[in-house]
């Protein structure tokens, strides 16, 4: 004779127990998530409050040093104004000493057997006239003059053969642009090559403005 046991009630109880356990686990997970979210929110609020406090402290520091910063800016503006005035004064000084150095440069760069007879300078341009024994001396004068820091764009305007007191000479006119160097003493050029024996160095005879 076989015994028959009904297992359905046991299975039903096990299923209910599993459901209760799953429900408890789900509820615990949900509760834990809520707790974690609350903690994160609390920390975020604390971080925001700390950041705002730091910004407020920084603003107070800026406000505290603002008068000093404004004073520094005033000093800086005053310094720039003084430097601008000094630059103007230096330019005026260089312009005032320019003609003297220009005459010195012309005398230094005029080769032997070449004489300067007239000089005109206006608005940064110079025109010099003179006499020489030959055209090679004029070319030498122009080359030497072009090496000076006081002149640029040196060019021959005209040249003409003339007879003076029975001596055949070349009359010439040379034009150039005048440059005012930053420091006249530093800008002084070395003297040209020593003159040949028995000849005199040319020098400006007259000036016109």
**What percent of residues are in strands?**
15-25%
CATH topology of the domain at 98-183 and 202-208: Gyrase A, domain 2
- Helix and strand content put the structural class at alpha+beta
Principal-axis shape: rod-shaped
Q: How helical, in percent, are the residues? A: 55-70%
Number of helices: 3
Task: Give me the count of strands.
Answer: 5
Q: What do we call the CATH homologous superfamily of the domain at 98-183 and 202-208?
A: General secretion pathway protein M, EpsM
Most strands sheet: 5 strands, mixed
Low-confidence stretches: 183-209
Radius of gyration: 49 Å
Broad CATH class of the domain at 98-183 and 202-208: Alpha Beta
N- and C-termini, Cα separation: 151 Å
Q: For the residues shown, what is the average pLDDT?
A: 75
CATH architecture of the domain at 98-183 and 202-208: 2-Layer Sandwich
Order of helices and strands: HEEHEEHE
Please list the strands of the largest sheet in the order they lie side by side.
3-4-2-1-5
Question: Can you give a write-up of this model?
Answer:
The protein starts with 7 loop residues before the first helix and ends with a strand. It has a domain at 98-183 and 202-208: 2-Layer Sandwich (Gyrase A, domain 2). The chain has a five-stranded mixed sheet, covered by helices on one side. Strand 3 (151-164) and strand 4 (167-178) form a beta hairpin. It is built from three helices and five strands; from the N terminus they run H-E-E-H-E-E-H-E. The chain has 209 residues and is an alpha+beta fold. It has helices at residues 8-109, 135-146, 184-187, and strands at residues 114-122, 125-132, 151-164, 167-178, 207-208.
């Amino acid at each position: 004779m076989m015994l028959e046991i009904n297992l359905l009630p046991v299975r039903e109880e096990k299923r209910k127990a599993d459901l209760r356990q799953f429900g408890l686990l789900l509820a615990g997970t949900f509760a834990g998530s809520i707790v974690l979210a609350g903690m994160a929110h609390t920390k975020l609020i604390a971080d925001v409050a700390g950041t705002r406090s730091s910004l407020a402290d920084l603003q107070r520091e800026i406000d505290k040093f603002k008068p000093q910063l404004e004073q520094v800016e005033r000093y800086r503006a005053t310094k720039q104004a003084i430097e601008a005035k000094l630059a103007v004064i230096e330019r005026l000084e260089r312009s005032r000493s320019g003609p003297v150095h220009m005459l010195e440069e012309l005398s230094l760069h005029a080769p032997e057997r070449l004489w300067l007879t007239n000089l005109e300078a206006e608005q940064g341009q110079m025109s010099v006239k003179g006499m020489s024994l030959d055209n090679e001396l004029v070319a030498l004068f122009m080359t030497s003059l072009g090496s000076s820091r006081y002149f640029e764009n040196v060019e021959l305007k005209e040249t003409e053969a003339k007879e003076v007191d029975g001596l055949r000479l070349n009359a010439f006119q040379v034009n150039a642009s005048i440059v005012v160097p930053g420091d006249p003493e530093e800008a002084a050029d070395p003297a040209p090559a020593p003159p040949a024996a028995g000849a005199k160095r040319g020098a400006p005879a007259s000036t016109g403005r």
